[in-house]
Prior knowledge:
Elements: H1 3-6, H2 12-15, H3 19-26, E1 43-47, E2 50-55, E3 58-62, E4 71-76, E5 79-80, E6 98-103, E7 118-126, E8 131-138, E9 150-157, E10 162-171, H4 179-182, E11 191-200, E12 206-209, E13 212-216, E14 231-235, E15 242-247, E16 253-257, E17 261-266, E18 269-272, E19 278-289, H5 293-304, E20 309-311, E21 314-317, E22 338-339, E23 344-348, E24 355-360, E25 368-371, E26 380-386, E27 389-394, E28 403-408
Parallel strand pairs: 22-24
Antiparallel strand pairs: 1-2, 2-3, 3-4, 4-5, 6-11, 7-8, 8-9, 9-10, 10-19, 11-17, 11-18, 12-13, 12-14, 14-15, 15-19, 16-17, 20-21, 20-23, 23-28, 24-27, 25-28, 26-27
Amino acid sequence: MSPISLMRKTNPMRTMRGGLAAAAVFATGCFSVPPYEPEVRVSYTEVGTGGTATGPGFALRFADGDGFHFPDALMIDGVDVMGHEAKPGVACDAEDEVGLRISPSYRISASSDGERVLNHLVPVLRGPGVVQVRVEWATSFACNLMRSPGGTSTFTVFPDGRIVRDDTITDPNMMSISPTPCSCGPQDKLFYISPFWAFVRKPEIMFYASEMGPWSLPDPGTDDSHSNYTSACIDGGDGAYKVALAWDDFLNTTIRGGDALVAFGRDLKLGEPSLEKIDLTSNSAIFIGHTDCKTTTDRAKEYVKPSLLTINGVPDITPSIHDGIYGGADGSGGKPGIKLATDKTDLVGAVNSPFAVWLRFPHSVDGLRAKADNVTGPWYLPQRVDDDSWIIWFRDPNPGNRTITVEAL
Length: 409
């Protein structure tokens, strides 16, 4: 698929629920309500059995076809920066593209040859403020068909080039298995389970780890394992893209070198000689930038140590680690959204980056508006989720002395 097809726009009437009601809201012209065609937005488009989440200058493509529907391309300014190892040289359990390493068995990714017991791609949110896509997967171990690990990987995409990832990996079977008969190759290895992001290797690319660097990427076949970095940044060169990564937990974060890629991840299982029940979670995020790695990594720090907001009178609310939204998913499976008792609420507190808030009103709401002192133009973007639930994405950081008032129409 060409870069042009990855970046094509979708019909806005398909990407926003309640489009007609929203159009009426945008046409009012009151309180700096954004236009119906906002300057900055994200959208989701189905492509066969896959799909593409598209934002300003970037697109995350989820694989089409029979393979696992994990991302197989990350386009930035028309260039795919995702790491792809050339087959057949890539090891069957090594990192490739974006996915899960379950070494020494097959990795779970778009390029995997592993058994596909379950393989669904579910668009949860379609924009324009937030796109969310969930990959539902399950596989089986060749050494024991009773063991069938599976889970979900959810990607939440924002217009500012922030992509938050939430992984669950489970297998309730308590039957112990050893790695040697489970290996997809000739290697005799221990068990590792690691969510990862892989990026292309080029001679000019450097990386920064937290506040340190720049350093050359690890050589092929080597790693900087268990480096315990809270964040890292890939520098594509002068005038080129920057991609910062961040993890909710820095223990056992890894950087592994390949011939054509470098993978960044975190070992959830670390060199274990047997594998029993699996019940694991992991959260990470990437941040796309164009200035420098320090600026891009500063955005990643907001994920590691987020700003606090007071919403509806409740202080010290942080964005959900699962989706990066204030009031987002809490991991319990319940309905997200901060419940309001009235049609109006205030957002109070300094936030150091663009941000999104998920609100649940006491009744069905056809539109909303936000207002703040000395703010005009399309500075926020509302997105209807269901009858009483809305997400509002704010384009800019919020100064500490400014209160944002959100009210239903």
